[in-house]
Amino acid sequence: MALSLSKGQKISLEKTAGNTLSRVIMGLGWDAKKTGGFFGFFQQDQAIDLDATCVLFDARGEVVDTVWFKQLQSKDGSIVHTGDNRTGAGDGDDEQINVDLSRIPSGVQNLVFVVNSFTGQSFDQIQNAFCRLVDSTTDKEIARFELSGGGTHTAQVMVRLYRDGGAWQMHAIGEKTSGRTYQELLPAIKPHLGA
Description:
This protein is mainly β. Helices cover 7% and strands 43% of the residues. It has one domain: sav2460 like domains (Lipoxygenase-1), CATH 2.60.60.30. It has helices at residues 13-17, 182-189, and strands at 3-4, 10-12, 23-32, 50-57, 63-67, 79-81, 95-100, 110-117, 126-135, 140-146, 155-164, 167-177.
């Protein structure tokens, strides 16, 4: 059973997964709330484009690489984004980022996953939203963060994976913020790199 994450929680990925973790998937899913209508009739779908992004940092807190809808693969090929879903249509994960932890360059200390509304709608216009971490070797969901619940924010700094000795650890951040791209979120990300 997946661990339901709460803000600020830190866990060992390998202990939670029950094995040596080498490949993980960050999955993002959402639906747009229907708008308008009269007594539930004539409601319309709205298009909300949430984006999943992974930002790679070195030990000094400098950005080394980024995987997002404009760059679907890290320079070394260890992280791959499956593509941009611009509406949230479909069931399950609407976007995924696949990470091969064993191939992450040694100079990378932190992987930070963020979710942002590229179209600028706030999270109070989104429903059934979640972010999850899956052991892709076993297809076991390790952890889940529920994103629904409203709010005027347009982005969240979700999770940080970081090196601790020879193992990867996870820090559930869950920081609500605003921004349409990862570049606008960097001031909200950086304080969590050494936490």
